[in-house]
From TrEMBL:
It holds the Pfam family Radical_SAM_C. Its cofactor is [4Fe-4S] cluster. Gene3D superfamilies: tm_1862 like domain (3.80.30.20). This is Radical SAM domain protein. It comes from the Bacteria. PANTHER family: ELONGATOR COMPLEX PROTEIN 3, HISTONE ACETYLTRANSFERASE-RELATED. GO terms for cellular component: cytoplasm. SUPFAM superfamilies: Radical SAM enzymes. GO terms for biological process: tRNA wobble base 5-methoxycarbonylmethyl-2-thiouridinylation. GO terms for molecular function: 4 iron, 4 sulfur cluster binding; catalytic activity; metal ion binding. Keywords: 4Fe-4S, Iron, Iron-sulfur, Metal-binding, S-adenosyl-L-methionine.
Length: 341
């Protein structure tokens, strides 16, 4: 039986972060207004563990928000020690964290290695220098390359976070960033289309008409193409779009392509493209039956059955969907021929 996967999130909002990036207000994004302390971290861990079925489960503790490795080593260690205790007791499998590319060095990595940190995610956001400058990131693409190499050298898993739609972004710069990120051979990727958050410099620019966020459809199209590129290299994209369930205070979002099921929009759009490419310009049969795993059913159909409606309208045929749990996720049987989407 497949293991359940739990992540216990501990948000460190703006602690350790030396810059005010134009898009960021961690306290608004997460809804956490106070600094994290070891005592609070322990309480959060205990609260999450009390709700979990620990049998046949993989449990990770994750330090998100801010820049964890920008904290003083003493503060990092105090938080790590609290979490590591659960690893020593066999309750938690490992730790993971997110941080800035310019706050990675040998001393920091040596310290993290002592506490069973397995995954380090870098808030890369873009690998186009003009975009990093316009976003007041305070680091360069070279900082990303150096940090990524070092993380890999020390044996950690590398995560990359990208933000399409930042100031000065173009389609060219966004896909350039993806290609550069692929070259870093990350173990996982997150794609977060840029949102306008209250209390940020980006919110000021937006209110003054100096910044226009991506529309929802633009963001879906861009993320779909980025997803295809990463998948073509076998790199898992573990998250697309910020969601309320990932520690996001949706009330803080002023503008931008926010949708509670953003990933499903992207995946459904990709499925529609793939099916059209497979069917070609014309379908001779009056009816087609698609068979899919039950977990993929909603993705195939699209929100409000929009994919099925689009196909029926374009080809003038009737479409039925049947569930077949012998199929893998993302497999579709069309007229008895299996397609991997």
């Amino acid at each position: 039986m497949k293991k359940r996967h739990y992540i216990i999130p501990i948000f460190v909002p703006h602690q350790g972060c030396p810059h005010d990036c134009v898009f960021c207000n961690q306290r608004e994004i997460t809804g956490f207004q106070e600094d994290m302390t070891p005592k609070k971290a322990a309480r959060i861990i205990e609260e999450y563990l009390s709700t979990m079925n620990k049998e046949n489960s993989k449990i990770e503790i994750a330090f998100y928000g801010g820049s964890f490795t920008g904290l003083e080593i003493k503060e990092q260690t105090q938080l790590l020690e609290v979490a590591y205790k659960y690893c020593q007791e066999g309750i938690v499998d490992n730790l993971r964290l997110s941080t800035r590319p310019d706050y990675i060095d040998r001393e920091i990595l040596n310290n993290l290695a002592k506490y069973n940190v397995q995954i380090i995610e870098l808030g890369v956001q873009s690998l186009a220098d003009k975009v990093l400058q316009a976003s007041c990131r305070g680091h360069t693409p070279e900082d990303v390359f150096k940090a990524s190499r070092l993380i890999k050298k020390f044996g950690f898993e590398l995560g990359i976070q990208l933000m399409p739609g930042l100031p000065k972004s173009t389609q060219e710069s966004m896909f350039y960033s993806v290609q550069q990120a692929i070259g870093l051979t990350p173990d996982l990727v997150r794609i977060y289309p840029t949102l306008v958050i209250g209390g940020t410099k980006l919110a000021e620019s937006y209110s003054e008409g100096e910044f226009t966020p991506l529309t929802l459809q633009e963001a879906v199209e861009i993320c779909k193409e980025e997803l295809k590129l990463f998948r073509s290299r076998g790199i898992p994209v573990v998250r697309i779009g910020l969601q309320p369930s990932s520690g996001v205070n949706k009330e803080a979002v002023i503008a931008g392509p926010f949708h509670p099921a953003f990933r499903q929009l992207v995946e459904s759009n990709l499925v529609l493209d793939r099916i059209k490419a497979y069917l070609g310009a014309k379908v001779d049969e009056p009816q087609l039956t698609f068979r899919v795993n039950s977990r993929f059913n909603s993705v195939l159909r699209g929100q409000k059955n929009n994919n099925l409606k689009a196909l029926q309208e374009e080809y003038g045929i009737k479409i039925e969907v049947e569930v077949d749990n012998d199929l893998d996720y993302r497999e579709i049987l069309i007229a008895e021929r299996k397609q991997i989407i």
